[in-house]
Write a structure and sequence with these properties.
The protein has 408 residues and is of the alpha+beta class. It contains 12 helices and 10 strands. β6 and β7 form a beta hairpin. It is globular, with a radius of gyration of 22 Å.
């Protein structure tokens, strides 16, 4: 079934979309016979990780990752900017996600923007192929929303650095080879000026990765402790003391406010509400289909309206003439906030459709859809916290886009 955005596509893009759709249909992996994570936040076992990395490698070898990245770094220098089409078709087909999300969407674009030629040559192709997995060392136990208060330090030592400190909520740290690391290099400077940005090797001695278990019982999050961990001199990205500026660039990519991803976007495609509608038709309530409940029907209709608005807004964000000249980033800066909160609303609605069955959990043979909906609802809270909480996002939009005074 064609979507509205396809009606205005060029002949070349339409043909490319058909090619990608056919490839996914022929190559999408079958059920592996074990529980798969719903997102990169829940990758815990070796078999989950290897299954997902094998899939990313297959997508890369087919030529569908790094389309917008320069060819000399493993990309394809595609003049049509068609990485978005691949991401849309992967999402619509319900294909497994690309496990190296942090590398593809955050580290890679940041290295492209600030890296030396040697860093680009060294790091970018292994990100695309999934050969080297990345994690993010930003948050600390005492520096989450107030990220600039971070205390992890990088001290010059010989021909390199020594790192000491503690990072938390470090997704994929247990399988990562590299970390994008924020560390304080000048404790006497203003808190924003004394931070530098590093490409840290996770296999260095003095690094301890400790798993954290979420309320779903799943792993994927970790805390990372650095005990005089050595780091080479050329791990520095950009200039000394430029870390805050570079981190804001990374967060712009993470929050969907800038394009440049190597692949794996999760923008709305219109599938979430279809899935909830299907669920409502299958669930019974008072002897009838739950889809006949007028209150649920109204909420599902509102969900469809919201999802369609998000899809159209994503299209508008790519058309310069449809963005306000005085607030050019307004639409893009809303991405992370509205997408994550929509995901939470729609999975909460699915749990209401389930009724008492929403209390059934993984492994219960009676659980509809293998309990994926309540699992998805609980996991949705990680999406509204990671990358900056919804409260922080509202402050950013209010202060940087609308020009409102800073909160006290």
């Amino acid at each position: 079934m064609s979507r509205p955005e396809e009606a205005t596509e060029s002949k070349e893009n339409a043909e490319f979309r058909r090619e990608v759709r056919a490839w996914i249909a022929a190559n999408r992996p079958s059920d592996p016979g074990f529980k798969l994570p719903q997102s990169f936040l829940e990758v815990e076992s070796d078999r989950q990780f290897e299954f997902l990395r094998d899939w990313q490698r297959k997508v890369y070898e087919a030529g569908y990752l790094g389309l917008d990245w320069p060819a000399e770094y493993g990309g394809h220098a595609d003049p049509h900017k068609r990485q978005r089409i691949v991401s849309q078709e992967l999402n619509r087909a319900g294909a497994p996600f690309l496990v190296n999300v942090i590398g593809l969407q955050w580290a890679g674009p940041t290295i492209l923007a600030y890296g030396t030629e040697e860093q680009k040559q060294r790091f970018l192709k292994p990100i695309l192929s999934g050969e080297e997995i990345w994690c993010q060392g930003f948050s600390e136990p005492g520096a989450g929303s107030d990220l600039a208060s971070l205390q992890t330090s990088a001290t010059p030592s010989g021909d390199g650095w020594v790192v000491a400190g503690h990072k938390v909520w470090t997704t994929l740290a247990h399988v990562a080879k590299w970390m994008i690391l924020l560390a304080r290099t000048d404790p006497a400077a203003h808190k924003y000026a004394g931070i530098s940005y590093f490409l840290f090797p996770m296999e260095a001695p003095g690094v301890t990765v400790q798993p954290l278990v979420k309320m779903t019982g799943e792993g994927g999050f970790n805390q990372v402790i650095f005990d005089a961990a050595p780091m080479p001199k050329d791990a520095l990205l950009g200039q000394l003391g430029q870390g805050w500026q570079i981190a804001m660039t990374t967060l712009t990519f993470e929050r969907g406010a800038a394009e440049g991803s190597g692949g794996g976007s999760t923008a709305p495609t219109g599938e979430s509400v279809r899935a909830v509608t299907s669920l409502a038709r299958r669930m019974r309530r008072d002897g009838r289909s739950a889809a006949e409940d007028p209150v649920l029907r109204d909420r599902i209709a509102q969900g469809w309206i919201d999802e369609e608005a998000l899809r159209l807004t994503a299209q508008r964000a790519r058309v310069p003439g449809l963005n306000m000249d005085d607030r050019p980033l307004a639409t893009r800066l809303m991405n992370k906030l509205v997408y994550s909160e929509f995901g939470q609303r729609i999975t909460e609605l699915a749990c209401e459709v389930l009724g008492p069955d929403a209390g059934l959990w993984l492994g219960d043979a009676s659980a509809p859809d293998k309990a994926e909906w309540p699992r998805m609802y609980m996991n949705s809270f990680g999406m509204t916290v990671g990358g900056g909480t919804s409260e922080i996002q509202r402050n950013i939009i209010g202060e940087r886009v609308l020009g409102l005074p800073k909160t006290k």
